[in-house]
Amino acid sequence: MPDRAPYDLLLRNGTVIDGSGAPRIQADVAILGDRIAAVAPTGSIAADRAKDSIDIAGRVVAPGFIDVHTHDDRAVIDGPDMLPKISQGVTTVVVGNCGISLSPLTLKGAPPPPLNLLGDEAAYEFPSFADYRGRLGEVVPGVNVAALIGHSSLRIGTMADVGRKADAGEIDAMRRLLADSLDAGAIGFSTGLYYKPNAAADADEVAALAELLADRGGVYATHMRDEHDKVLDSLEESFSTARRARVPVVISHHKCAGPHNWGRSRETLPVIEEASRHQPVGLDAYPYTAGSTVLDPDHVTGDIRIMVAWSKARPEMAGRDLAEIAAEWGCTEKEAAVRLHPAGAIYFQMDEADVRRILSFPLTMIGSDGLPHDSHPHPRLWGTFPRVLGHYSRDLGLFPLETAVHKMTGLSAMRFNLADRGLVREGHAADLVVFDPNHIADAATFEAPKTPSRGLDFVLVNGRMSWRAGETEVDRAGRLLAQTA
């Protein structure tokens, strides 16, 4: 007699937004093991055909969100439940962005900024990506992990002086480390040309490394050299480098930073669109007018609000504005930044109209760029994806919900070559999120940044019921998503 319950779980009566950008449909979704076994018209699969069934009438079932821009390299090890991400529907994080990766690197001494965003010297304990991959397998994080290898990390691991261009021997050493990492499952390479450990590298050095991705299906992601006055020059450098290396490029957290550059997305987006006609191009963005990174006195200009996210020297100052601290200390903001160093900060440097324009751009994916180790983090760490779905899609009508989901699922999986992720399709991995489209919303604020979002019911990772609304424990089922050329 045939098994009456061939499925493990049936999600009944839901609205499926499948991640492709296609219109929503009413359908039931059946899961077997770690795969989506069926997507069928509502009512066509009897409830007793599954060992468990959940009526999700009035709810949306969508692919688990893919956070394409994170600095979760260490967080997936030290805080493997990954509550800030899974509680907002994220089932996969791309780590190693902005030229900063936890491997392959060990250190003797404090990590130079911005590598200190991932932790202290002890955090850098993985001389090879294979070592990092092994640790992930041991801890089993709550979300899947796809990893980029950072250029700054390669430079610090092979160069005595990162303040200059690498010589031929150093480039060869970096190439070997990068090749080994890619062969062990890393999905690509990232640069942080804005930052001091990476700034001396020219396009020749970057291309010599990025070209290793071409035959491996890898992606090149870049925090460009300049997102301020020379943003157009930096875009051209990024596109040119990727063409030379024959690889896809992703422009990280695209923005037009600084008040005198506000409105320039009207210039940058047509340039990106034109480039995309001739080469594979993507970009990501977060839905806020503030960014966050290390507090660098050289970048304290006095023309924008800056909030302290953490400070080793004065930890009690986290969450306070730099201008307020400077006034209290009777010094300039730049002098206050020096006294707080090493530290991190939130920079209110973008214009809302630019943010909306960039989010609406068809090639834009969603990435949080959250910093999980900050004592007072930017609210994007906890709120990015519900903010796009609730505030920008539903409340402002910036784009349909189908488009919003596509920007955080199907488009992301395609751009980062994550096979069988990002779509609600038979045979695809059962990474799924169920949410209330009428009430999903971010709750994290700059004053209370660790507040969980609202309107999410539950999240499945690789077929496992990993998280439910209101819970603080996660049934972890994440895995490394290795590159498949």
Walk me through this protein's architecture.
- There is one protein chain.
- The radius of gyration is 22 Å and the shape is globular.
- Strands 1, 2, 3, 4, 5, 19, 20 and 21 form an 8-stranded mixed sheet that branches. Strands 6-7-10-11-12-13-14-18 form an 8-stranded parallel sheet. A 3-stranded antiparallel sheet has the order 15-17-16, with no helix packed on it.
- The protein is built from 15 helices and 21 strands.
- The two termini are 43 Å apart.
- The mean pLDDT is 97.
- It is an alpha/beta fold and 485 residues long.
- α7 crosses α8.
- A hairpin with an 8-residue loop joins β1 and β2.
List descriptors.
single chain; 485 residues; alpha/beta; eight-stranded mixed sheet; 21 strands; 28% helix; globular
Question: How are the elements arranged and paired?
Answer:
Elements: E1 7-16, E2 25-32, E3 35-41, E4 50-55, E5 60-63, E6 65-67, H1 75-78, H2 83-86, E7 90-95, E8 105-106, E9 125-126, H3 129-139, E10 144-150, H4 151-158, H5 168-183, E11 188-192, H6 196-199, H7 203-210, E12 219-223, H8 231-245, E13 249-251, H9 265-276, E14 281-285, E15 291-294, E16 306-311, H10 322-329, H11 333-340, E17 343-347, H12 352-360, E18 364-366, H13 380-395, H14 401-407, H15 410-415, E19 432-435, E20 456-461, E21 464-468
Helix pairs in contact: 4-5, 7-8, 8-9, 10-11
